[in-house]
Design a protein that fits this description.
The chain has 299 residues and is α/β, with parallel strands linked by helices. It has two domains: 193 residues, 3-Layer(aba) Sandwich (Rossmann fold), CATH 3.40.50.170; 90 residues, Roll (Methionyl-tRNA Fmet Formyltransferase, Chain A, domain 2). It contains eight helices and 17 strands. Strands 5-2-1-6-7-9-10 form a seven-stranded mixed β-sheet. Strands 12, 13, 14, 15, 16 and 17 form a six-stranded antiparallel β-sheet that branches. The protein has a two-stranded antiparallel sheet with strand order 3-4. Strand 1, helix 1 and strand 2 form a beta-alpha-beta unit. Helix 1 runs parallel beside helix 2, helix 1 packs parallel to helix 6 and helix 5 packs antiparallel against helix 7. The chain is elongated, with a radius of gyration of 22 Å. The termini are far apart. The relative contact order is 0.11.
Length: 299
Amino acid sequence: MASALFFGSPDAAVPSLRAVAGAVDVHGVVTRPPTRRGRGRTLRPTPVAEAAEDLGIEIHTPTTRVELGELPLDVDVAVVVAFGMLIPEPVLIRPRRGFVNVHFSLLPRWRGAAPVERAMLAGDEETGVCIMQMDVGLDTGPVFACEAMPIGERTAGELTEALAATGAQLLGSVLPSIIAGAVSAQPQRGDATHAPKLTRDEATIDLSLPASQILRHIRAFTPRPGASIPTREGPVKVWDAEVGMAALEVGEWRHEGGRVLVGTGDGALWLREVQAPGGRRLRAADWANGRRGTFPTVE
């Protein structure tokens, strides 16, 4: 039976791990070390580590290039999905068929760490997933297969989940041919764009922009880290919203008919769910009722 090593860390990598485990003998799972998460700051393994334990697969948590080189790389192929650590060239060439990556964009568009969110922020109508051969560049390797997907009105979390499922299916269908040497990867074609990691500063909402653009922004930063309106009382996170039908000045608030509106560059945004500084997530109408008709000044 063909053999593989799997590299991945977050929830989005778990469907691909299960697909690989169903097709070949997985000799080990390589993931990031446990981190402290949650309110109690408990030390918890990555979602991929938890899935590997369920599957009875040995887990490795290297933290250095030297430790990467010490992994059991005498396998037919290594599969990478959002691992979170750069893999040096001497490691890339050791599996018989090299390293294969599941990347959440239609390459060469959106190479980098945040392809889903960057596609949404740019207003792309569709994105997708590609199975590619890894090389020393940043998502520059040739591609075995791609599948497109409309973005629609999903949040980044929802879109990532859908791409993870589609990527796992695509990986499962093409991986046996890759291992057998029956399919060739083709060079990426078209203009490349880059998807650097998101920063918390970028999550700040600029209300002078059109409401439709702000809505894309909110969805792209949901669930992490959450987009927020800057106010004198601190950032008010917006978890759900729609384009509102009202003529308001930028930063002007209105609460009427059970709807909370805030003015944007071309009208208004209808806020559906928000989170005040230090508070919990609430329906925007409940938040407004609790403030008794007053709203924080937008900065």
